[in-house]
Amino acid sequence: MISILFAGAVSMVLTLLGTRLAINVLSKRGYGQEIRDDGPTSHHTKRGTPTMGGTVFIMATIIGYFAAKLFTMTSPSASALLVLFLFAGMGAVGFLDDFIKIFRQRSLGLRSKAKLAGQTMIAVIFAVFALQFPDERGQSPASPFISFIRDINWLHLWPVLVVIWILLLIAGMSNGVNLADGLDGLATGASMMVFGAYTLICIWQFNQSCATAPGSKCYEVRDPHDLAVVAAALTGALFGFLWWNASPAKIFMGDTGSLSLGGALSGFAVMTRTELLVLLLGGLFVIITASVILQVGYFKLTKGKRLFRMAPLHHHFEMLGWEQVNVVIRFWIISGLCVVTGLGLFYAEWVAG
């Protein structure tokens, strides 16, 4: 437990101090956010706000994790290293996207095909390696089964299909967080709640692990304790980042941050055997993604009519006249309800056996 607390504390302090430094450096270099001209007009005042803040909490999370490993003199696990690889790898794709936006002074960065290719490459590498590295019980970080709260025994997939399934999950969650990152602190606060929930889930799975407490209710998860350390580091890093990212934001996470958070979220879902449960835990991201799909579909079916005033959904409420802070707080409440419901289902499944 001490390594979990230590990782969270170190990463939080690093982002609290490091983000202030990043704001100064990025401002001096003119690395400011470009704003879409077709977005809400109130957002034009944010033009020039430093972006790529995701680099700060990515570095803080990685340092926090390895500091905890050094503090407790324990070795990193395959599961934790793979999640960190996915987290940092997706962040690297986002960093290229952000840098192109800044360098070319436009609101669009990487071309969609290049961005998708980068995400696919990182996701496939993660999926392939996640099926390797069995422990002494033969348990690999990822499972060949689709999972809800545990593996669903009748949903066994061939290795190629497992890779495709993980790829779809990563693409969906990374782009879901990316779409949610449109208002000050919205994606940061919602992600912090979900990773906080995964910290609790991993701790519970460690206490009820089949490796240490075999029984009918035990969890077949390879490295639950080490995953809890990563989740705590992420939660602490986002907590520190939110200090500067809350309205009015002094810095944006950019695609660097949003793609990395979505990648980490799907990574935890795969490693903890909660691939379908993550759709509830990250319910806000699912709702926001669905609003874009519905908007596009309705627009095409009705030949130009719109279901919402603007998509993603949070911009619709802005266009209705809601203050940005009100939208963010109410969406945080929705995210909190999704997280609490997901944790409730997770615990209820264990109680019911």
Automatic annotation (TrEMBL):
Pfam families xref list: Glycos_transf_4 (PF00953), MraY_sig1 (PF10555)
Residues at which Mg(2+) binds: N178, D255
Top class in the EC scheme: transferase
Cofactor or coenzyme needed: Mg(2+)
UniProt keywords, alphabetically: Cell cycle, Cell division, Cell membrane, Cell shape, Cell wall biogenesis/degradation, Magnesium, Membrane, Metal-binding, Peptidoglycan synthesis, Transferase, Transmembrane, Transmembrane helix
Topology within the bilayer: Multi-pass membrane protein
GO terms assigned for molecular function: metal ion binding; phospho-N-acetylmuramoyl-pentapeptide-transferase activity; UDP-N-acetylmuramoyl-L-alanyl-D-glutamyl-meso-2,6-diaminopimelyl-D-alanyl-D-alanine:undecaprenyl-phosphate transferase activity
TM annotation in the entry: 6-26, 52-71, 77-96, 116-134, 154-173, 185-207, 227-244, 276-299, 327-348
Metabolic or biological pathway: Cell wall biogenesis; peptidoglycan biosynthesis
Record EC number: 2.7.8.13
Gene Ontology biological process terms in this record: cell division; cell wall organization; peptidoglycan biosynthetic process; regulation of cell shape
Subcellular location: Cell membrane; Membrane
Reaction it catalyzes: UDP-N-acetyl-alpha-D-muramoyl-L-alanyl-gamma-D-glutamyl-meso-2,6-diaminopimeloyl-D-alanyl-D-alanine + di-trans,octa-cis-undecaprenyl phosphate = di-trans,octa-cis-undecaprenyl diphospho-N-acetyl-alpha-D-muramoyl-L-alanyl-D-glutamyl-meso-2,6-diaminopimeloyl-D-alanyl-D-alanine + UMP
Single GO cellular component term: plasma membrane
Role noted for this protein: Catalyzes the initial step of the lipid cycle reactions in the biosynthesis of the cell wall peptidoglycan: transfers peptidoglycan precursor phospho-MurNAc-pentapeptide from UDP-MurNAc-pentapeptide onto the lipid carrier undecaprenyl phosphate, yielding undecaprenyl-pyrophosphoryl-MurNAc-pentapeptide, known as lipid I.
Similarity comment: family membership: Belongs to the glycosyltransferase 4 family. MraY subfamily.
The protein's name in its UniProt record: Phospho-N-acetylmuramoyl-pentapeptide-transferase
Organism: Kribbella caucasensis
Lineage, uppermost ranks: Bacteria, Bacillati, Actinomycetota, Actinomycetes, Propionibacteriales
Gene symbol of the encoding locus: mraY
